[in-house]
Amino acid sequence: MSRNAGSDVKAAYLFIAPAMIGFFVFVGYPLIRSFYLSLTKYNGLTDPVFVGLGNFRRLFTTDPSFWPALRATGYLVVLYVPLSLVLGLALAMFCNQRFAGVRLVRTLAYLPVVLPAVATITLWKFILDPQVGLLNTVLDRLGLPTSLWLQSPKMAMPSIVLVMLWGVGSTMIIFLAGLQAVPTELYEAAKVDGAGPFAVFFRITLPMISPIMLLQVILQTTAALQTFNQPKILSPGGGGGPGFSTNVLMLGIYNNGFPTLGKIPQLGYASAQVWVLFVIIIAVIALTAKFSSLWTYSDSTSD
Amino acid sequence: MAPASQAVRPAKKKPRVIGTTAWYVVALFVGAVMIVPLLWMITIGLKSGTAVFDIPPKLLPREWKWSNFVNGPKAIHFPRLLLNSFLITGLSVIGGVMTAMMAGYALARMRFPGRKLWFYLFVGSMLLPGVVGLIPLFQLYKSIGWYDTWLPLIVPAFLGGNPLFIFLARQYFLAIPYSIDEAAKLDGAGHFRIFTQVMLPLTRPAWLTMAILAFQASWNDYLNPLVYLYSSGKWPLSVGMAAFISPFAGKTPDWSYYMATNLLYMLPPLIIFFAAQRYFIQGLGALGSTNQK
User: Where is the ABC transmembrane type-1 domain (chain A) (predicted)?
Assistant: First the structure.
């Protein structure tokens, strides 16, 4: 800490001012404003009309698309998050070994993450085409069953999760950093004690990276809850179909708040949807953090 | 701890000889899953428009249509969209990095009342989902005449739009020995000079990492430009490319044109990735150590 304090104050606030303004404009204001709007009927042109909990009542009782949206979002999270964590950790452990070509594997695994979402999602749209797509062709050649993928109500969401999992490199890279921070003495000691690979994984690796696992659960779940690009680009007409199969909450928010030509935006109603999603996200974070002490290991000597 | 120290790889035991073959099978499989879709894209980009719909699909083009790389981009006014993307991305990179470095410097190396509070507010705001801002900010921008301009895509970066960057910058500044700026202070340098002439050169890996991440985020962003930009002449490539394949007026998209253009769209992030792989790994390594601070 710098010793000649006091004179710093003015300069410090100058340095921090842009970020401070940003905090008020992009965090404080939207929180208050979107909560207020969620209690109103508002089309963006005339003044908002206060309707109390009317939007929420409509969402939960009369809107035919809300429960399917909630279900689709839940399905996506339940399917994507565990797979992403397990595959990401497995890949990270694989890439943490020493063998010729490991750098190349690591690079290739991370490659899809740096590519633009629009570019990769549209590429997958073509790969998943039932007639001329690469995936069905390969499956057919191998004598495996093919699928209608995005065009089938049953397989549409798994297809979207498949596309999302192609970007598992983002999960991998964070786990990899965590694995590399585990002190090697621990592994050496375990080796001396004659511990098998399972014991090493469950007694050393997993406890040591549990704080990162916690971070990952929160990051991946909140990101999955806000999935927009994949269903928007992959579903026919961007409507979340076929049927309601990929009609996630974000699509409803977008379509109500920023509708296509000829429709009136329902910004109050969309804000109510935002708040439902927001409460779910907060609940997930709070629950994960609350129960984290049960399964995360913390070294009481550090910090 | 400095993010750079993450680069040290621990020595791990070598896989046993018996398992080596299995090892390479897995490596080959992982590599193939990641690279084959991209190679497939290149072949589509080189096929003629009708060959794309061959059943069963052919791996290699019958005739190599290099002209797709000219005609595809022409179909969506590619140069215009490319320029838009570069301008939007360039400005938001500058803004995002500058603001975060300044805030990180203040939070790590200056003493002022509210220092802790602001740190927690910034870190806490990382948890605020972007969706909460979508509608109020859209209305705000609309009311001040920013709708259908690039300002909503650029100005937020200058106002600390990415709290993760502030966090990363602070972590990096904490790792620099205080004797360095004490010496500069004795020589009569103010904070501005210390920041620009002493700190910025010392923290090059930090701000390069942020610049790369900011480039990627802005170049790849789809939702924000989709919401804020109405005129197709102002679109960045992300929105233009998505519109390219959405079938309108009953016209099916020309996939070979599209994939050729898609390759060009991917090229800048790809080049940066290969040129700066080290920074990608390091920068995200710092994120991985978030909880170990």
Answer: 70-288
Q: How many domains does chain B have?
A: 2
The two beta strands, A40-41 and A49-50, are antiparallel
Nearest to B133 by CA among A48, A98, A277: A277
CB contact under 8 A, A22 and B110: no
Q: Confidence class of residue A3 from pLDDT cuts 50, 70 and 90?
A: very low
Contact at CB, B30 and A26, closer than 8 angstroms: no
- Minimal-distance CA residue of chain A relative to B128: A27
Measured at the CA of B260, the angle between CA B254 and CA B265, to 5 degrees, comes to: 115
> DSSP labels for B215-258?
HHHHHH--HHHHHH--SGGG--HHHHHHHHHS--TTPPP-HHHH
- B122 and B203 co-located in one domain: yes
Whether A204 and A245 share a structural domain = yes
- Per the structure, the complete domain to which residue A96 belongs is given by 64-294
How far apart are the C-alpha atoms of A227 and A241, rounded to whole Å? 15
Collect all residues with Cβ–Cβ distance below 8 Å to A23 and sequence separation of at least 6.
B118, B121, B122, B125, B160
Q: Does the residue B204 lie in any domain?
A: yes
Give the lowest-confidence range in A164-173, A237-246, B211-220.
A237-246
Burial B64-103 (b: 16+ CB within 10 A, else e): ebeebeeebbeebebeebbebbeebbebbbebbbbbbbbb
Residue B6 lies in a domain: no
Pull the structure tokens for residue A122.
Answer: 């549209």
Tokens of A249: 């909450």
Structure tokens at A201: 């994984």
CATH number at A212 reads 1.10.3720.10
The whole-number pLDDT of residue A116 equals: 95
Reply yes or no on whether the pLDDT at A151 is more than 70.
Answer: yes
pLDDT for residue A247:
93
Output the DSSP codes for B108-165: HH---TTHHHHHHHHHHHTTS-THHHHHHHHHHHHHTT-TTSSHHHHHHHHTT--HHH
Count residue pairs from A and B with Cβ separation < 8 A.
303
Residue B52 in contact with partner chain A when CB distance is under 8 A: yes
Q: Which of A101, A105, A178 sits opposite B288 (nearest CB)?
A: A178
Angle made by CA atoms A245, A280, B162, in degrees to the nearest 5: 100
The letter for the amino acid at A19 is A
What span, in angstroms and rounded, lies between the C-alpha atoms of B9 and B16? 20
Cis before residue B152, ω within 30 degrees of 0?
no
Contact between residue B270 and residue A114 where contact means Cβ atoms under 8 Å apart: yes
B210 touches chain A (CB under 8 A): no
Do residues B41 and B155 both lie within one domain?
A: no
Listing DSSP states for A150-216 in one string gives GGSTTTHHHHHHHHHHTTTHHHHHHHHHHHHTS-HHHHHHHHHTT--HHHHIIIIIHHHTHHHHHHH
* Spatial distance between the Cα atoms of A39 and A174, rounded to a whole number of angstroms: 40
**CA-based nearest residue in chain A for residue B111:** A5
ipTM of the complex: 0.87
* B204 Cβ under 8 Å from any chain A Cβ: no
Same domain, A72 and A148: yes
